[in-house]
Amino acid sequence: MRAPALLLVVGFIFINGIAQAQTPYERLGQKAMTGGQFSTAADYFEKAYASDRTNMNVLWLMGYSSYHAADYKKSIEAFDKLIAMKPAETAAYYYRGKAKMLAASAVKEAKSPERERLLLGAIKDFSSALDLTPTDYKLYQNRGLAYQEYAIYKSQKIADVYNKTVAINACNASINDFEKVLEESGFRRDIASQIEKSKQLLTNIR
Q: What pTM did the predictor assign?
């Protein structure tokens, strides 16, 4: 885990041109993160943010480390704040969408409105990221997965959840997104498998 974390830290600082001196908590957080101790890192970055609520780099690192620590609520909250300050940060939408997807998968109640809210939020985040970087095909892949999960949710024949039209539309949207990935990257077994899964779901719904 060390190399990706280091690349992310350096990349974000370079892209955003942050020249401010790092606080002790930031340095401790980065040390913990590069060692794979993401929960500890998130705690340090949270303390750094408490002392400077304009520090976008700290918000980014808090969101990223919380995501990898599987604290999706804290990750979403950090990226909420970052996006409010820097609404054109594509990667923040991407990771917030991923965090919402994983948070949704942890909701066990079949008819939970929280699951629906998180899935719709993930779809919106990936769409916002695509508006900013329309050639990033991992965004299509992840939005396709979010649409697929939403189709599964809305296809449940449970009162206040089931909606055949919405489920069909979500299935078709997932297939369209996966096909865009194939058009760009050529044959990929994992994507082809997801297309077949969505098509089978579509058949079952109809």
A: 0.89
